[in-house]
Prior knowledge:
The chain has a single domain (5-157), classed as dinb family like domain (Four Helix Bundle (Hemerythrin (Met), subunit A), Up-down Bundle), CATH 1.20.120.450. Helices cover 61% and strands 0% of the residues. The protein contains eight helices and no strands. α3 packs parallel to α5. The longest helix is centred in the middle third of the chain and has 24 residues, at 91-114.
Amino acid sequence: MELQPDAAIALCHEAHERLRVTVLKIDDDTVRRQSRLPGWTVGHVLTHLSRNADGHARRLEGALIGVEVPRYPGGSEQRDGEIEAGSTRSAHALYEDVDESAKRLEATWARSAAAGWPNAELLATDRFATSGSPLRRLREVEVHHVDLGLGYVVTDWPDEYVAWELLATLARLPERLVNAKDAHRLLGWLTGRAPNIDGVVLPPWM
């Protein structure tokens, strides 16, 4: 199942609003708290979400004028550097960044949709057409909202998101297994030949 851009945009508007509600409640001490992602504080996760929004908008703005622009022109070094640099800001600054970057992206989606998602084939460094931006952004917001460790949990995810993400994640599952016999254990559990998947290691994606 692939959610259409308009449906994904609607879900993203709701996801952005839920994220705003969460971030509005945090204080400067919470910013420095360890998130559920190894090595990342709450500030790291929030900064990543803001720069992710800007990256999507950057690529789409380029496509609107027929130019191939990657979300992170400087690659992973730019991405990681921006996250680190913004991670120690105040709670207020982080909220404003999350809020404003989401609004900029939503405005860019509106322009792209009105134009019929032009030059969607300009992939830059991504593996999805520009019309797939809202759905991939939805993934980032929903998963990393949970990663904040601030009360938003997996059972809060919208059913429409889970219906898409479960199939997509299962398709990528084999490449994420790290131990020699993890595939055996997982297959045994999926076919009802093992009572659990104890020992299977799945590193979180970031």
